[in-house]
Design goal:
Helices cover about 80% and strands about 0% of the residues. The protein has about 300 residues and is mostly helical. It folds into three domains: about 100 residues; about 90 residues; about 80 residues. Helix 6 packs across helix 7 and helix 7 packs across helix 8. The longest helix is centred in the last third of the chain and has 56 residues. It is flat, with a radius of gyration of 27 Å.
């Protein structure tokens, strides 16, 4: 479970208890109809709450910030720090902030899922090769999964650690693996688990299924790397245009224009240009990083 959510100054468990005391669950049930996919997203993100409970926490956070901003504006008015017109402004501001907080918390599980998919697919190929080597060496599937759980494959090791723990307590391996595939958002990881469960149910060779999966995943990663490489050329041109050429030409144009027109160039314009360049570089680096495929090394 996520112990602390963004923009909530309390823990999830405490927020859930407070939302129940405020009787927000009936309202959460009605609001939850607007987000039908939230239940599956919470399951795949690993948040130990139902959708109605999670929405009640998000509503409580929205109400908290709505009241907080209005209380602060009243205190500022009482101490004569702001004019009386601040009440109308604070009402609009608190409403906008509350809406933003609620929507952000509602879509926060999707951000967790995106992060989880990248962590899963980053080490998936290496984990499959590890599993194949173990099985081809005569090691049982359970011991092979236990070996992966002890290795350093990030989220994959954590997921297999849960599988090994449940199988060791007496649950059927096929049922545990199907549950694992259902609650994981990565398509490649789910496809891997489905192939293993199908081989177990049909009594087929798990090694052959893993070999075909590894071959398919290698080709998919090569395609993703080539696609990413082809996208870097126009991105580099875009960076050169907006990050280097246009600012340099813009400053030169302003200097030439001021020399002909006699209008002085204020320092404010250079600070605006510097702020634009900083924002553009930050945005560009984040965009390029988000487009990078979830591959740990070249194959």
């Amino acid at each position: 479970m996520i112990e602390r959510l963004p923009f909530i100054p309390i823990r999830v468990k405490s927020g859930l208890e407070l939302s129940k005391k405020l009787d927000l669950l009936p309202m959460s049930y009605r609001v939850g109809k607007l987000f039908p996919d939230l239940e599956a997203s919470l399951l795949q993100a690993g948040v130990g709450l139902r959708s109605i409970e999670y929405i009640s926490v998000a509503l409580f956070a929205a109400f908290f910030y709505f009241i907080l901003i209005n209380v602060l504006s009243v205190i500022a008015f009482l101490f004569q720090l702001v004019p009386s017109t601040i009440f109308f402004t604070s009402l609009i501001t608190s409403s906008i902030v509350s809406l933003v907080v609620f929507l952000y918390l509602t879509f926060y599980p999707h951000l967790i899922i995106i992060r989880k998919v990248k962590n899963l697919e980053k080490n998936l190929l290496f984990a499959l090769r590890h599993l194949l080597i173990q099985i081809r060496s005569g090691v049982s599937l359970f011991d092979s999964m236990a070996s992966i759980s002890k290795a350093n494959y990030g989220t994959i090791s954590e997921e297999f650690r849960e599988v090994v723990k449940k199988v060791a307590t007496g649950e059927f391996a096929v049922d545990v693996l199907e549950e694992l595939a259902f609650r994981n958002p990565s398509l490649y990881f789910r496809r891997t688990i489905w192939q293993v469960t199908n081989a177990l149910r049909s009594g087929g060779d798990v090694g052959k299924s893993l070999e075909s999966l590894i071959s398919h995943l290698e080709s998919e990663q090569r395609v993703m790397i080539r696609r990413y490489g082809s996208q870097l050329n126009p991105l580099a041109f875009l960076y050169m245009m907006f990050g280097v050429i246009l600012p340099s030409l813009g400053i030169t144009f302003l200097i030439v224009l001021s020399s002909f027109s006699g209008l002085p160039i204020k320092e404010f314009y250079f600070w605006v240009l510097l702020a634009f360049l900083a924002f553009f570089q930050f945005f560009f680096i984040g965009f390029v990083k988000s487009r990078r495929p979830s591959v740990e090394a070249y194959v």
